[in-house]
Amino acid sequence: MRTTIIRAVAGSVLTVAVLTGCSGPAADEQRPDIATLRTAEPASAAPPSPAGRERPVIRPDEGREEFDRYVAVWQECLFGRGVPRVPKGDKPQLDGHETATAECEHLYPENWMEREARTNPEYTDRLRDTAKCLKAKGHEVTVGGDPVALMYGDNTSANKAYDDEQECQRTAFREDIKKYDGG
Q1: Around Cβ 104, how many Cβ atoms within 10 Å?
Q2: pLDDT tens digits for 39-67?
Q3: Engineering a disulfide at 172: which of 34, 61, 99, 129 sits with its beta carbon 3.0 to 4.6 angstroms away?
Q4: Extended strands (E) in the chain
Q5: Cα–Cα distance, 177 to 158 (Å, whole number)
Q6: Euclidean distance between CA atoms 12 and 14, whole angstroms
């Protein structure tokens, strides 16, 4: 019986010791004035995933020149990953170069309206305001499609409305444009 009591006490002591060792950091490890040999985890040497990067935005006050500059950077990325070079102004042949395309897609620019379409929950309402403005200026336009966009009867109508469309977009999206530094 005495052996049974000793075993029970020894088992209890062992259980308490194990549980104490498994329960969180010791009191002295929680004090910042006591040095430890623990260090922070090393930062990852891998660059961020291209999928998580935002594409550059062509602001409302920028034009073709800025777009072309971004496209040149995108193309250099592709060429550096094995996509054959093409004469200036031609589009690279991306068939069979899916890896290069995926690695460089974050460099291809989008205009501010494309960014708004992707990120602004009020985009469709702002587009409807743009259409109302255009109708007030005499243009035949609707909002629809997938993705949602301004829709004209034909290209000639769209071309005639271009300047008015720019003005109406700036009016309808005036608060949103502010985030693009220069709009």
Answers
A1: 23
A2: 444 444 445 555 568 899 999 889 899 99
A3: 129
A4: 57-58, 110-111, 141-144, 149-152
A5: 22
A6: 5
